[in-house]
Amino acid sequence: MPFLACWRAARLLHELLLEHVLKAPLQFFEVTPVGRILTRFSKDVEVLDTALPSQISDLMWCIFEVIPLLPTKYHLLWMFRYVFGDILLRHSFTITQPFTCYRLHGVVIFAVCL
Length: 114
What we know:
By secondary structure, the protein is mainly alpha-helical. About 75% of the residues lie in helices and about 10% in strands. A two-stranded antiparallel ribbon has the order 1-2. It is elongated, with a radius of gyration of 34 Å. The two termini are about 65 Å apart.
């Protein structure tokens, strides 16, 4: 399918390029060599004929691999929040508890309340 679409795009691009080049003023042809125009045509059409179909095919393959994984990832995210949410909350509470200060005969002792 991507190869057929790229073939159509290459044909359309070639027709549009040819149409615009033929409508160019005569000064364009006096300044620009014919070889440069032909090279430009061939490079643009070559990219559409060779590189673009394989890249579109790879993109479609990646999309079809990733889309089925999205519901699984969404489910795992909610499961993680449900199961580990309480554990993470308790852990963060014990880690961030403030230090307390006791004075014993003028000496300051810091202790963590667990």
